[in-house]
Amino acid sequence: MLSDALWLLGFTALLFVPLERLLPLHGDQRLRRPGLATDLLHVLLSGFIIRAGFVVSLSGIGLITARLIPDSIGMSVRSQPDWLEFAELFILSDLCFYIAHRIVHAVPGLWRFHAVHHSSEQLDWLASFRVHPVDQIFNATLIALPGIALGFSHETLVLYALLYRWHALLLHSNIRIDLGPLNSVIATPHFHHWHHADQTEAHDRNFGGQIILWDRLFRTAYVPRTLPQRYGIGDSLPGDYIGQLAAPFKPVAPDKTESVTAMVQVGPSQKRC
Questions:
Q1: Is residue 171 part of a domain?
Q2: Per the domain annotation, does 138 fall within a domain?
Q3: What residues contact residue 20 under an 8 Å CB cut-off, 6+ apart?
Q4: How far apart are CA 8 and CA 258, in angstroms?
Q5: Which domain holds residue 257?
Q6: CA–CA separation, 76 vs 79, rounded Å?
Q7: Domain presence at residue 224
């Protein structure tokens, strides 16, 4: 399994590192940036935990929905043209991504896990792997819920999973991409980088995954022409791998409870505990 992680790391590096050098969002960002070693450990070690937890959660969804949802619904879904089936899964899954993303930002207990992902102070393709296993399993489960519950075909599920994974890498990358008119529809690195910005105007903005539709609809979109000046959540989390895994489980000091609640209300870009 470690060899699989190494192959994934090597393949994605061969693709994204040259692009980040040729088309950088931030031209002064170095390859050997702060937090690089921590992110490498997230890739190599956390993936095992995440995959195991996701398999368990998917099994639970399958058992529950098999009893609640008739097989005829799945048959009807799979009988559609492939393009229509994929389009439906794409829309439903992206909506679930948006909902899950807003939940982990709004619920203090869940934010403590999601904060690990927001702790990166420089973004590139590797930063997308900095996630706490609990946070990633929760998000992935909600995103997968409509696909499993409604009986979408295996091929459609795999295709969407691949698109989701590679788009996530792109969104966090230090790559400048201009899609023209599609910038107002499809999420780009510029769009998602503002979600990670440690600036007041970016608090609780740009929750969308693949498309910006939901942020436009629920008025959470924020896409200025400029780039963020700062990323991260300050020094409220340890910078090392083990410290980041352990931090969400540590009790919050009583004198910090009020400040934590206030920060949750204004968004993830504030420093939090």
A1: yes
A2: yes
A3: 29, 31, 124, 125, 173, 174, 175
A4: 42
A5: 36-266
A6: 5
A7: yes
Instruction: Return the closest-CA partner of residue 104 out of 113, 117, 96, 95.
Output: 113
Q: Tokens 């206030």 correspond to what residue?
A: 262
The amino acid occupying position 180 is G
Number of structural domains in the chain = 1
C-alpha 210 chain-centroid distance? 10
Flag whether pLDDT at 1 surpasses 70: no
In a domain, 256, yes or no: yes
Helical segments of the chain, H only: 2-22, 36-41, 47-68, 71-78, 82-106, 108-118, 133-149, 154-172, 189-195, 213-217, 241-246, 257-266
Pair 187, 210: CB distance under 8 Å = yes
pLDDT in tens, 85-138: 999 999 999 999 999 999 999 999 999 999 999 999 999 999 999 999 999 999
CA 22, 25, 26, 29 dihedral sign is negative
Q: Which two tokens stand for residue 218?
A: 């629920």
Q: Are 135 and 116 in contact (CB under 8 A)?
A: yes
Predicted model pTM:
0.88
